[in-house]
Design brief:
Strand content: 15-25%
Structural class: alpha+beta
Oligomer: single chain
């Protein structure tokens, strides 16, 4: 195999960061993906040793490209194509824990709230009640 590079959108799709190639392409065009510190284009070539930083669902992933996948295979194959930095994993886990603790502090209701209950919840969360 002479050419050991792949389009960025295909690499993100093959490594299972996005369910479709068009979703991967949209994320790259939206500026959510950086290749070697620069904002990338979908057609940018990814090679072994490149650094990719992407933001997906408010979570940041920073990784080093270890291999170029041939296909969109099982998750074990996809995970072998990159190594994620320990700082990135720790920061993501911390962010998820913060989001969960914020959610636990919200007021709850026994069932589906009606108009009046929603108003009370909204006022309570704003600090009015």
């Amino acid at each position: 195999m002479a050419d050991r590079s792949l389009r960025l959108d295909r690499w993100l799709f093959f490594t299972r960061f996005y369910k479709t190639r068009s979703a991967a392409s949209a994320a790259v065009q939206g500026g959510h993906v950086r290749l070697n510190g620069e904002r990338a284009r979908s057609s940018a070539k990814v090679a072994i040793g490149d650094r990719i930083r992407l933001v997906r669902n408010q979570l940041t992933y920073e990784m080093m490209v270890e291999d170029i996948p041939v296909r969109r295979g099982p998750a074990s194959e996809a995970q072998a194509c990159y190594t994620e930095s320990e700082d990135s994993v720790a920061a993501r886990k911390s962010h998820v824990a913060d989001l969960r603790s914020d959610r636990l502090q919200l007021a709850t209701t026994p069932g589906r709230p009606d108009k009046h209950t929603r108003r009370r919840l909204r006022d309570r969360n704003r600090g009015k009640g």
